[in-house]
Amino acid sequence: MGIETEEELENVLSEPTPEVVNSLARLPGDILLLGVGGKMGFSLARMARRASDAAGTCRRVIGVSRFSSGGDDAFAHHGIETIRCNLHDRNAIDQLPEAPNVLFLAGTKFGTTIDKPTTWATNSYLPGIVAHRFRSSRIVAFSTGNVYGLTPVAGGGSTEDSEPRPVGEYAMSCLGRERVFEYFSRSAGTRVVMLRLNYACDLRYGVLVDLATRVWRAEPIDLAMGQFNTIWQADANAMALRALDHASTPPWVVNVTGPEVLSVRAVCEDYGQLMGRAVRFVGRESDTALLADARRGIGVLGSPRVTAEELIEGVARWVARGGRTLGKPTKFESRDGRF
């Protein structure tokens, strides 16, 4: 993964697969991305634009966010329309353009322990407003594997049929998001996908970046959450866009993550060798972790193009050479659901 600059990185993250191009060639209508200002939004919107252009499909790709820190010019530069909108304002949502294809990316995770009302308003109330407004659209709603809670490591991770056991306000409110979308799907016939994502990663953020940064800084590595899943963000983008093809009522639930169950200890030892750093561990591995079984998603939406080994090497190279990171730790090691 010889990526040297953020421009190269963004180009790679937004490169559509042939399967994504084929999916968007089949699906009619514009694409609306709600909450596009988050970490995944820019590359996901660009992939939708690039795939639509490659398919020869004339459609609008529209990103909606507050854009409180700016950044909407970058979207416009790549042919993506933008709308500044406070998604908590029901009247503003009612004014958004019709779109047969909606990707719901909005959510609150960090700070949820401090501001619980906003957490629930964003993660559970807002989905109802969106589901009602776009009840005739296909909706891919981003959720999280946190709704499952901790699962035995030996079991290989929770499947889509596992009973949710959310721990903490964030996970509970995300299950609330799913139940609200499910209600509108069943009552109004809205076609929905609940996409339970476990740790998308590019070279600037993600679990692998968190661990690589700690190794590089010679910080101790806590082993309490000893295993995890992750997926290259470009692969998560591709699977999300392909999921539009599978929106259904009741909702189709799918785990999106990499196929590997990764060991924190083994990954950090790899980083130590790749970056020439000594690694110090504290604590020991538990027999449970937050893990998801990715087989259903991979079987329907395609295998990741980037393996965990390639991603580990790419992140190590990026961190060691001083590549910019977003400074937004995942806090994946939390076992009590407090973020």
Structure, described:
The chain is α/β, with parallel strands linked by helices and 339 residues long. The protein has a domain at 6-198 and 231-257 and 293-299: Rossmann fold (3-Layer(aba) Sandwich), CATH 3.40.50.720. It has helices at residues 6-13, 18-26, 41-55, 72-77, 90-94, 116-133, 168-188, 207-216, 233-243, 264-275, 295-301, 308-320, and strands at 31-34, 61-65, 81-84, 101-104, 138-144, 151-152, 191-197, 200-201, 221-222, 227-228, 231-232, 252-256, 262-263, 281-282, 288-289. Helix 2 packs parallel to helix 9 and helix 10 crosses helix 12 (308-320). The mean pLDDT is 94.
Element string (H = helix, E = strand): HHEHEHEHEHEEHEEHEEEHEEHEEHH
The helical percent reads: 25-40%
Which CATH top level class of the domain at 6-198 and 231-257 and 293-299 fits?
Alpha Beta
Fold-level CATH name of the domain at 6-198 and 231-257 and 293-299: Rossmann fold
- Can you tell me the CATH superfamily of the domain at 6-198 and 231-257 and 293-299? NAD(P)-binding Rossmann-like Domain
Largest sheet: 7 strands, parallel
Distance between the termini: 31 Å
Low-confidence stretches: none
What structural class is derived from the secondary structure elements?
Answer: alpha/beta
Count of individual helical segments = 12
